[in-house]
Amino acid sequence: MDNVIDLEKQFQEKIDRDQSIEARDWMPDDYRKHLVRQISQHAHSEIIGMQPEGNWLSRAPGLRAKLILLAKIQDEAGHGLYLYSAAETLGVSREEMLDALRTGKAKYSSIFNYPTLTWADMGAVGWLVDGAAIVNQVALQRTSYGPYARAMVRICKEESFHQRQGYEIMAHLAKGTTEQKEMAQDALNRWWWPSIMMFGPHDADSPNTGNAVKWKIKRESNDTLRQRFIDKTIHQADIIGLTIPDKDLKWDETTKHYKYGEINWEEFNNVVKGNGPCNKQRLEQYNKAFEEGAWVREAAEAYAVKKAKKQQQEIAA
Ligand code: BYC
Asked: Over the stretch 8-19, which tens digit does the pLDDT of each residue have?
């Protein structure tokens, strides 16, 4: 039997050849742990991410807007489920992951700890938050772990629809009345900086990037993806006549990228530590829904047992 050093060497060679790693393949413990951490955090983000948007379901302006928002929120639930399934292939149970979320041990994206104050926030979330998510997730379609990469393909297609629905709301408000335009600009002002924080700390301060790049879990670094998002979003804001709230934004002819202002990392760290404007509320809401949904889980389990028993009786007969 191969020793661990040989197995690690073969594993890394496979990654270097761009072959994907599958659930039954040998993998180092640290690779497995890294993926469980990232995929479960990603899944939790999708699930908690339903809350800021759910806040506007009963107040969406019109049936069309309501239907689209409802479909988007359902998609996020689906994304969470694919991602929990992908993480389960690594040997962690869904119960363990959900328990970590419920007890506040698990992280989820900082962005979902901000409040959605007006209908324009539904535009800003779709345009900026889903827009940032797409940039990050397009890269993850080529991540080295097969089940995660494949989950990303469908997720990216759906995120693309989400980004467009948000941009459409913003475009519509931006060419509306003075008040509507102000509302759109205000949402952009509040969501811009948290959106660019979604990509995580600068590369030099990102402890997980080293292994993530070596194992091709991350195909591109936090800063590279953040820059890509900024470059493309500035043009989108221009088209609809809104202003990105960063006085230091400047086109750099040498790098062919926009320079941007200082990110408030103190705010980011505070939100990640659980002290953002809505951290407490998000967790309480999740726990409430979890408790209220216990009967559904129990009924599903009882039905599964009943069905299995019936099947056994049919086989025996
Ligand atoms: N928020 O070493 P780093 C969505 C943590 S869902 C909170 O750079 P990494 C959507 C990080 O976990 C969007 N924590 O980490 C849903 C680490 O702490 P730990 C979610 C953050 O993993 C519904 C520490 O900071 N997308 O799109 O190499 C509606 C150091 O960071 C954040 C994903 O999860 C943050 N923003 O890179 C609409 C994508 N950033 O774990 C939209 C998958 C960093 O060591 N995840 N931290 O205790 C990733 O691509 C990477 O995990 C990240 C961070 C780029 C986020």
From this structure: 999 999 999 999
